[in-house]
Give the backbone structure.
Amino acid sequence: MAVVTKTDIKNALTELGIQKGDVMVVHSSLKSFGHVEGGADAVIDACLETLTPSGTLVFPTLIQKDFAYAYDTWHMDKPSDVGYITEVFRKREGVLRSDQATHSVAAAGRLADFLTREHGAYGKRIGSFGDTPFAVSSPWQKMYELGGKVLLIGVDMNKNTCKHLVEYKMLNELLARIKDEKLREELAGKLKYHAALKNPELNATLLWPYFDTLRLQQIADERGLIRKAQCGDAQLLAFDIRTTNDLAEKLILENPSDWFKPPMSTWLEDAIKAAAPV
């Protein structure tokens, strides 16, 4: 088993091009390193020291247990379900958390308040997890607009929560461009929404474009959009949120059938046609 120090992690982050002032969201597996001297706190400190106080460190603090009832049981001190480091970070003094039941984040640094404030308060978007998690006012949208980066520690792009921003943004923008109100409502009515999770039969009939993120990772890697570093036993990946999200949306909209089977591909083809300018 490899032994990793805070300095080792900082060196890997520098190799990945992480710089002071960056906005960075981290998806992580602590055990992937091997043994980390100082544990989760060493990982967090390495990130904070690399970003410096001018940067902003973000960890997802998602809720996955009893997900169908997440909105019924949500409170601001509800534990994160997405890794040990995220929960250690969430509990740190001075760390802020966004108030959203399914896809909250915790943040520290210069833009922590801006990122976590008003999660879902405006610009709501319909979607499979509810209309607030990836709203215009969400931290996920804000990180996209700020040119934020994703750091994956010992995990692949399947764990990249920013993928859901692609889905929400793409479908809601398509629907918004459809001038035929009846058709727009008909198409929107076929999409998954969080409340349907409580009704498995209904949920099974509804659609959502959960795309192949490992395929996106391969394409992004082939195009030189992903930087890599080894730290202990863990592979670390870093990439730009906007660049990879925009690439995913472009590829999906160009050829829906390359990414989905009917009826999802048919839904997208119909929506793209209806949204096209006359």
Notes: Strands lie at 3-4, 23-28, 35-36, 56-60, 96-97, 105-109, 149-153, 227-231, 234-240. The mean pLDDT is 97.
